[in-house]
Design a protein that fits this description.
By secondary structure, the protein is of the alpha/beta class. The chain has twelve helices and 14 strands.
Length: 324
């Protein structure tokens, strides 16, 4: 295997994956529509394109020995802005991939497919998608069931993936760190809800480990399950003057879940090597040294940015036959 196509490789997760695979002497090509980016400046072969442009994407698939599929609208709020567009990108494009590509596929799903449950969940646990995001990801998984595909259900990501790609500040570890710096105070409602956390660079490691394995099917990926209240106190260890405003009230959260990553550990020896404290320190360094100009910019939030740029994404779907 030589040629690896990373679809959606210019994004937050794609940045880390692209760097690690390229360093491992594969031929890397990124295919991306640059929804959140103004440019792609990495010294990597690049094709600007939309996953709904099947003719253009087909040419790239002919080149690829393996495809890492990251293209998606990510997050409950971002997906809810336009369910039809979400379905087209998150679900229908994967159905097309399954019908038109027979090489190795590494696909990113989400632990959100489990919904809110009060026990530790493994890959055989019942799913209960409570958002259009989780629903489309679960449907996409089904299209890949009989393919040479490994599917990673990712926990809640955090940290800095690379030096070029847009950082996300709408993820719980990252946003709590930024708020601790900007406001000196964070608010926690309830706090007993859990998140399975994972550093973005650990995702890249799992991908690299499985480009050429025979492992197929679904694998949870997470480092640890952390209560939001405990996470707030962990952030305070890095900002000693931080005030935690705790409201002890029930909080309905569709992302309250704990997962086991034991299957990945036993099958391909996956272990997270990047800690939550490391992720907090990465963000703390960026904000304290003023390396992010406007921490409140919508650019760093999937939902806020897409809401502002909605019309750009509502370009008519590609059609094989032009209307008369």
């Amino acid at each position: 295997m030589k040629n690896v196509l990373i679809v959606g490789g210019a994004g937050y997760v794609g940045g880390a994956i692209t760097d690690l695979i390229q360093q491992s002497n594969y031929n890397v090509r990124v295919y991306d529509a640059l929804i959140y980016e103004d440019s792609f400046r990495k010294p990597v072969d690049f094709v600007y394109g939309d996953v709904r442009d099947h003719d253009k994407l087909s040419e790239q698939l002919k080149w690829a020995d393996a495809v890492v599929w990251l293209a998606a609208i990510v997050g409950d709020g971002a997906c809810q802005l336009n369910p039809e567009l979400t379905k087209s990108i998150n679900q229908d494009s994967v159905a097309w991939l399954a019908d038109n590509y027979n090489g190795r596929i590494v696909f990113m799903s989400t632990c959100s497919v489990y919904g809110a449950q009060n026990k530790e969940l493994n890959e055989n646990s019942p799913t209960n998608p409570l958002s259009i995001y989780a629903e489309t990801k679960l449907n996409a998984e089904k299209f890949l069931k009989h393919k040479n595909a490994i599917i990673f259900r990712l926990g809640t990501l955090f940290g800095v993936g690379d030096l070029y790609s847009r950082i996300r500040l709408d993820l719980v570890v990252n946003i709590l760190t930024v708020r601790a710096y900007l406001e000196g105070q964070i608010s926690v409602f309830g706090g007993d809800q859990f998140r399975p956390l994972l550093h973005v660079k650990d995702v890249a490691r799992a991908v690299l480990m499985n480009l050429e394995t025979d492992h197929k099917g679904i694998f949870n990926l997470a480092r640890q399950n952390v209560r939001i209240m405990d996470l707030a106190y962990q952030v305070r260890m890095h900002f000693p003057d931080l005030i935690i405003d705790h409201t002890d009230m029930p909080f309905q959260d569709t992302r309250n879940y704990r997962v086991s990553a034991k299957k990945a550990e036993e099958t391909f020896s996956f272990r997270s090597i990047h800690s939550v404290d490391e992720g907090i320190e990465e963000l703390k360094y960026l904000v304290e040294t003023k390396r992010i100009k406007d921490l409140k910019s919508p650019r760093y939030s999937n939902q806020a940015y897409l809401k502002e740029h909605y019309e750009e994404l509502m370009i008519e779907k590609f059609k094989e036959v032009e209307a008369a």
